[in-house]
Design brief:
Distance between the termini: 25 Å
Strand content: 15-25%
Shape: globular
Structural class: alpha/beta
Helix content: 25-40%
Mean pLDDT: 91
Order of helices and strands: EEEHEHEHEHHHHHHEHEH
Low-confidence stretches: none
Length: 289
């Protein structure tokens, strides 16, 4: 069997094109991937895509608007994403599924759980942060003028962020090398593995092929209230977080876990932002219905 990716596009009701990819067993249990920011439908959490087939997983990853093969959606909100997901899964004949996010995909995974209700069997969050209306430290890369502007309407914040991300969009294949230089030693070792490096270079390059606009809009949304109460997510949420994650500090993962009514925190001692590459089997096992 070809272990993928099997790629496709869907024309949505408003005329936008949604790009997506699938990995693993077409008859397996469905896990919907909410990719990071930046990233794309090529994001996966295993070095060998054949693992998905061995585990009986059908891993479906759509590009969010403005990333990869998906058209931009001006004025979008985090809570608009579940409608795109529902349309895609209807086209694929999928009723119930689990959802898994990495990093900046956490808001979108939790929005799917909140909006789509019983269709979502369980949720996994890898290295995610809580909504910004819960006080948390700003990353150093966010300029002060952006910090003061994020509660304005999204177009204003996105316009401020666009030049911040323009250099990354020009040479996205170098992002893994940049991350190696700034993350903790465990992450450096993970990123130095050739298969991981190639995978991340490919997903970042594809994610930013439309330029920095999609990323700027996505980050602007993540820096404002998400539009739904996280405390009303009723599915069981598993949160995995490396205790030495220098990209999204573990304190943020602990805050997010405390906000959720039904959550299990998995605190990975000494590990970093990309710990999932060493824990994928347990992550996907936990998402079994």
């Amino acid at each position: 069997m070809d272990d993928g990716p099997r790629e496709g596009t869907l024309r949505l009701a408003d005329g936008r094109v949604l790009g997506y990819a699938e990995y693993g067993d077409p008859r397996g249990r469905v896990v919907l991937g909410c990719h990071g920011s930046p990233s794309s439908r090529l994001e996966r959490h295993v070095e060998d895509a054949a693992d998905y087939t061995r585990w009986g997983i059908r891993f479906v990853v759509p590009d969010r608007p403005g990333f990869g093969g998906s058209d931009p959606q001006p004025g979008r909100r985090v809570t608009d994403w579940p409608a795109d997901v529902a349309a895609l899964l209807e086209s694929l004949g999928v009723d119930r599924f689990s959802v898994l996010s990495l990093s900046g995909g956490a808001a979108y995974a939790l929005a799917c759980a909140h909006v789509l209700g019983d269709r979502v069997l369980g949720v996994g969050v890898l290295g995610g942060a809580p909504p910004p209306d819960v006080p948390w430290p700003w990353p150093d890369w966010v300029p002060h003028r952006v910090r003061s502007a994020v509660h304005r309407p999204v177009p204003g914040a996105a316009a401020l962020l666009r030049p911040v991300f323009a250099p990354a969009a020009r040479r996205p294949q170098l992002i893994p090398r940049y991350l190696q230089a700034r993350l903790n030693p465990t992450d450096r070792r993970v990123l130095a593995r050739p298969a991981v490096h190639r995978l991340l270079a490919a997903t970042f390059t594809e994610g930013l092929r439309q330029g920095p606009g999609g990323l700027a809009a996505d980050r602007a949304l993540l820096l404002r209230p998400w539009g739904f109460p996280v405390g009303e997510v009723r599915q069981h949420v598993h949160v995995w977080h490396g205790t030495q994650d220098w990209q999204v500090p573990v304190a943020l993962g602990r805050v997010l876990t405390a906000m959720l009514p039904r959550a299990t925190g998995h605190w990975l001692g000494g590990e970093g932002h990309f710990a999932v590459f060493d824990h994928a089997a347990e992550v996907y096992a936990a998402l079994r219905p």
